[in-house]
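Internal QA ticket QA-208
Title: Verify multi-chain structure generation after dependency bump
Assignee: T.L.

Test input:
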Amino acid sequence: MAIQNDRDFKAALTALEVPQQRALAAQFVRRVQGLSGDPRVLTAVELAARAAFGTVTEAELALAAQAANTARVESFTQCGKETDWTAQAGHFVAKAAVACVRPAAEAAKNTESLAWDAAMQARMARTCQTVAEGSGTDNPEAIEQYRLLEALLNS
Amino acid sequence: MSASLDKGVRVLKEVIDAPIASYFNSCVHCGLCAEACLFYTETGDPKYTPIHKLEPLRRLYEQEYTLLGRAKKALGLSKPVTDAELAEWQELVYNSCTLCGRCSVVCPVGNDIVYMVRKFREGMSASGNAPEGIKGAANRTVTLGSPMGVKLPAVKAQMRHVEDDTGIPIPLDVEGAEYMVMLSSMEIINFPEYLGAIAKIMQQAGKTWTLCSTAFEATNAGMQIGNSDLARVIVSRIVDGAERLKVKTVISPECGHAYTALRWEGANLVGRPFTFEVKHIIEVLGEFQAAGLLKTEGKETDRLTFHDPCQLARRGGVIQQQRSLMNQVAANFVEMPDAGFMNWCCGGGGGASAIEEGEELRLEAFKKKKSQLDAVKPDRLVTACANCRIVLEEGLEHYQMDIPVIGLTEMIAEHIPEQGA
Amino acid sequence: MNELQLLTWARGTGLDLAVAIFVLGVIWRLIEIYSLGRKKDLSAPRQVQGASGWHTVFRRSVPPPGMVKKSPVSYLGGYTFHIGLAVVVFGFAPHIKLVEGISGLSWPGLPSQFVDFVAVVTMAAMIVVLVDRLNKPVKRYLSTFEDYATWALTFLPVLTGWLAVQHMVLPYTTMLALHILSVELLLVFLPFTKLFHAFTVFGSRWFNGTVNGHKGVAV
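Actual output:
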């Protein structure tokens, strides 16, 4: 199956089971995790990656979510400060990581799938990077995300 | 723009008017203003008493504008305002004041203390005594066109992102649109979901709207630092854009001081009434709701409470709309004590959150917000100001309170059903 | 100078001087303050019932939500002595006679026993308020010589007046002279100290109410 637009992308993601969503979300975030140096973010992503194998407990996820959330809150750009777009990219990576380890109960309540959230935040991180580099607004992150989803569906 | 004490004093003499004179002459040192100020109530330090934050201005007023004061000065009996004193006052005028305005509401003799602090900042800024954190924002406004250095490419990147996310095109520079939507840097940088929410709401309401490539920035650092010239630069850009695009209404985003700067100070800064209306997004949503243009599905079921941003409610006059909107999408909306126009400040407005040295004080002052939340124990906290959101999240994080914070506009948009193909 | 001469001076020249300084002082100070003017507000107003300068002039006398709890002495003590002063000054028959003598205006007085009682309550309230000023950190921090001096300037007329009526401490003539002199001191200093809030409170509340009313906030 080929994913060619966001509507199909979103629908396919939402149809996945939560552990699979986590694993895929982790892949999305891995692509941009270099933009954040925060160990809490990396830990969350590692944990989410293992979720597909069923070796992760809700308690571990909750702990990781809390840590990643702190990382997110700490990396906001303050009102009035000069925007460091590279640093801001790190903020969105943290946000994506939080989505990855969103506890199952909360994931069930949300209208947006956690994988979609992670994908959007990862794209935002990439956008911040391209803004920082001054290389314009186009970035192929979405296409790369489609490829990852296709790979999962076809396997 | 060189700063100096002389310049500062000159600016202060210019801003003193009949209200300020009346206020200084009415103060009876009752100290009630302190009881309304979270920086005093949470620290117990009397130096944070609001009227005390104005002491150098009071002396200047006395020495320049009263007969007795001038006589005392001539006889060498009065204490002049010095650079050192203004430097000492920086903490009081900026770090420990968010221009929240509670003091002005409680003073028994009617003193509008927040008005005086706002004017005092003009002199502080002109004399070079504004904090580094906000000075930077002021410089960037001049050199880069945006207090936080946000330029059009960044906005366009955001637009692309939001278009992908929602599937709705974001209009730019559309002449004759009914609404011109402003963004605060905070939204462009931290909360891209806001723009998506606007797109969904406008689409459902069937209203025409646009962003403006030369005036997308609503954040007014000039207003925060107390530099009217700078504040004027930003507002003029918005006025030019709005008039060029011939829009009916300019929408101020979920940002407190942007609204105050544009809606209430704007016309006075540019010296003429606006030819368009200015409304806060919450006002616009309120109007849509009243006109039946806001059709939502479902309600949040968890326990929600609302934090009234000071510049929106007490200082802006938008108090009821957010409540009606909450009731439309929340089944379990509870008010915290002192909600509405007497709400307590998040502690980070007026430029305070950009002042690093003031962080410890802000976190201490946050205990007041914490006490409001402890009284109502919500599952989540809703607000309508991007800066409040961040300050609240930081405070909650610091006090280990697990209460997610969300924006009202986003929450409403989440309940708008997906449009067909 | 014996006490009768003192009393005569106080009632005559002294009073003329004090009232003249008071009236001229009040006029001058009002001009000094309000002639500074203010800029017109060019922003579009929000029309809301009940939010205006005039509303605030009266409404500000009511404590805002949650405030009495924070400083009950300020509100309760303050109301008591302000109302007490008004009752004593305007309700006591001899005072009304004095005003009638100068201007021809008069109105019914209150029973002298009641005025006596109110005078005592007023003095008690003023002492409580003074003690609070000395005790509370914020009030103590803000207070200057002027705060204590104006307290005395306001307290002495009530004290000396009451003592005179009671025929206590000093012979009546002397006490009365002291009372009138203390009132004259109060009149002379009122326009030039924080006591002038008696006049500027209206302007201040009005400006505040107008600015907020413009935005549709009833303060």
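Spot checks passed. Chain B has 22 helices and seven strands.
Status: verified.
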